[in-house]
Design a protein that fits this description.
Order of helices and strands: HEHHEHHEHHHHHEHEHHH
Helix content: 40-55%
Distance between the termini: 103 Å
Shape: elongated
Largest sheet: 5 strands, parallel
Strand content: 5-15%
Radius of gyration: 37 Å
Number of helices: 14
Length: 313
């Protein structure tokens, strides 16, 4: 009887112990499901992959070439669109450097073709990755001989080297630059051009276009060959005489034809861009031209630079 009693007690204890083991095991299993720990590796876990950052752009190295607009003539601060473009690209921590401004008063396409043969100019071009080019205004307007002065591109060789004023033979030139007598409407140093029907025609303004546009094409090709990596930004022409009745229509036609010819050339090169300026000055000449009635003033150059900055960026 006693043996039977102890047998049942032993079985009961074993049952209780087994039940406790099952309860504990069940608890661990539930905990592992709810809070899985996973396998602990002997090596450290990989670091979080960083978010890719945009590649920092290289420093913009600018070289300016061309005529008096590249030089900044008409801007009382002397900055022109070149220095203003540099400042705009440098704002906000941007990296930009001006290698040189080779703008020359009076330079034509023929003169610039000669300049591109000079080793100093070629060396400077090879160092740049952005080329700002302004050329053609002297070809188009001076070549047309609007005022009947007899001074054409072929007769102005001194300006090809920059030794004379940019628009010495052009209408509206500043008397201090041309040696003429006095300004109009009592404005010191200002002479507004006049014209007659025989002197101003679309044909006369367009006379220089065919040959000059060919030279422009040669200039762009030459710059591209000297430095194939550079981005070339050609600053289009505007009509500085759009507020003069006799010159409005022919001037607009001539400038539009020139810009279209330049665009045809530029469209065949992936590293070239035409920066339009015609609309910036159209109907706003009183605000954006200097006293010589040809070059932009500071505000005009500022508008040009803003558009160039948009193109570069």
């Amino acid at each position: 009887m006693n043996d039977s009693k102890w047998t049942w007690r032993t079985v009961s204890l074993i049952s209780i112990a087994a039940t406790l083991v099952l309860i504990v095991g069940f608890g661990y299993a539930v905990n592992d499901i709810i809070y899985p720990k996973g396998e602990v590796l002997s090596t450290s876990l990989p670091q979080e992959t960083p978010v890719p950052t945009a590649a920092s752009s290289d420093e913009v190295k600018i070289l300016a070439l061309g005529d008096s607009l590249a030089k900044g003539t008409g801007d009382n601060t002397g900055n022109g669109f070149v220095k203003r473009t540099l400042d705009g690209l440098s704002a906000g921590g941007g990296k930009a450097e001006l290698l040189g401004n080779m703008g020359i008063n009076g330079l034509t396409t023929a003169g610039l073709q000669s300049k591109l043969k000079e080793e100093g100019v070629r060396y400077a071009l090879r160092q740049a990755n952005v080329v700002l080019l302004s050329i053609g205004g002297n070809d188009l307007f001076r070549g047309s001989d609007i005022m009947g002065t007899g001074s054409t591109e072929q007769g102005t060789t001194s300006t090809e080297t920059g030794s004379s004023a940019d628009i010495a033979s052009m209408p509206g030139a500043n008397p201090s630059e041309t040696g003429t007598a006095s300004g109009k409407n009592g404005s010191s140093g200002t002479s507004v051009p006049s014209a007659t029907e025989d002197e101003v025609t679309p044909e006369s303004l367009l006379a220089a276009l065919p040959e000059a546009s060919k030279r422009l094409g040669g200039i762009l090709e030459s710059i591209g060959e000297i430095n194939p990596q550079a981005q070339i930004y050609y600053v289009g022409l505007y009509n500085p005489f759009g507020d003069i009745e006799d010159l409005l229509v022919p001037g607009n036609q001539a400038v539009t034809a020139w810009n279209n010819a330049a665009m045809e050339i530029i469209n065949t090169h992936s590293n070239m861009t035409l920066v339009p300026t015609f609309d910036l000055f159209n109907r706003h000449l009183d605000k954006y031209l200097s006293n010589d009635h040809f070059h932009p003033n500071g505000d005009g150059y500022q508008r040009m630079s803003e558009r160039i900055i948009q193109a570069v960026r």
